[in-house]
Design goal:
By secondary structure, the protein is an alpha+beta fold. It has 3 domains: 41 residues, no CATH class; 74 residues, no CATH class; 70 residues, no CATH class. It is built from 6 helices and 11 strands. The strands form 3 sheets. A 5-stranded mixed beta sheet has the order 7-8-6-5-9, with helices on one face. A 4-stranded antiparallel beta sheet has the order 1-2-3-4. A two-stranded antiparallel ribbon has the order 10-11. Helix 4 packs antiparallel against helix 5 and helix 4 packs parallel to helix 6. This is DivIVA domain-containing protein.
Length: 252
């Protein structure tokens, strides 16, 4: 199929492509391990060489697996490890471009199937509902804005862009020598502010649970982060506000 741009012609399919250059590091590991094996040495050198070859080989295998991701008027065509099928829009209740608040990972594309849809592994959650992570945007070369434009055009009301500009509590948090990671806190507070403005009780409950889990597990600490006491107080207040929302309909 001819490669087309997400931004030029509103009627065309949009095909995503792997980020180039991901084979370089695994290839270097394989090459270095092979060199160590051929030059000989002791047991530790051999073990290290075999480890390098195995690690690099696994990395290369991952980058060479078949990959296809197409956004069009009919739905999403996905071909990747663990999932090879077309997902028609009628099978999807929600398509979300999401930025996780806590943990490793960047932008990702999640889908929530309609009731009764089968064949999608429930490896994530959106607004408390089972969801499937289809794509890590760090692994494709198309820009997030291009992908969002294509999804908004083809998925219509099913698409929700949750990237958002992070929103901070007022007043701004002080920065200390060692404090909570600013990126994580900004995203958590942004999620909470958006949920408080939402008319969706399920979304408020889901974000309330997200805050509770983050506080229970502990936020990451780094150099020049947000003041710990101020953030703890702000997150507690947001959790209470989400719990006390009159339309929530669920006791804390």
């Amino acid at each position: 199929m001819m490669q087309r741009s997400a931004l030029t012609d509103g009627g065309d399919d949009v095909e995503l492509h792997r980020e180039p250059g991901r084979q370089v590091l695994p290839a270097v590991c394989v090459l270095a391990g092979t060199v160590l094996l051929t030059t000989g040495g002791g047991l530790l050198r051999t073990v290290a060489a075999l480890g390098g070859v195995a690690l690099g080989g696994a990395g290369l295998a991952a980058t060479l697996r078949p990959f296809r991701f197409v956004i069009d008027a009919d739905g999403l065509t996905v071909r990747r490890r663990g999932l090879r099928r077309q997902l028609r829009w009628a099978e999807l209740a929600l398509v979300v471009l999401d930025r996780p608040a806590v943990g490793v990972g960047g932008l990702r594309l999640l889908v929530v199937p309609v009731d009764g849809a089968v064949g999608l592994p429930p490896d994530a959650r959106v607004d408390g509902r089972p969801a499937t992570e289809l794509l890590d945007l760090a692994h494709v070369r198309e820009r997030p804005d291009e992908i969002a434009t294509a999804l908004a055009r083809h998925a219509g009301d099913r698409f929700r862009d949750d990237r958002g500009t992070p929103v901070r509590s007022a007043p701004d948090f002080s920065v200390s020598l060692r404090g909570y990671s600013a990126d994580v806190v900004d995203i958590l507070v942004g999620h909470a502010r958006t949920a408080l403005d939402s008319d969706d009780p399920a979304r408020r409950r889901a974000v309330r649970d997200e805050l509770a889990e983050a506080m229970a597990n502990g936020l990451p600490i780094g150099l020049r982060g947000y003041d710990v006491r101020q953030v703890d107080e702000a997150l507690d207040a947001l959790h209470v506000a989400l719990t006390a929302t009159p339309t929530d309909g669920v006791d804390a």
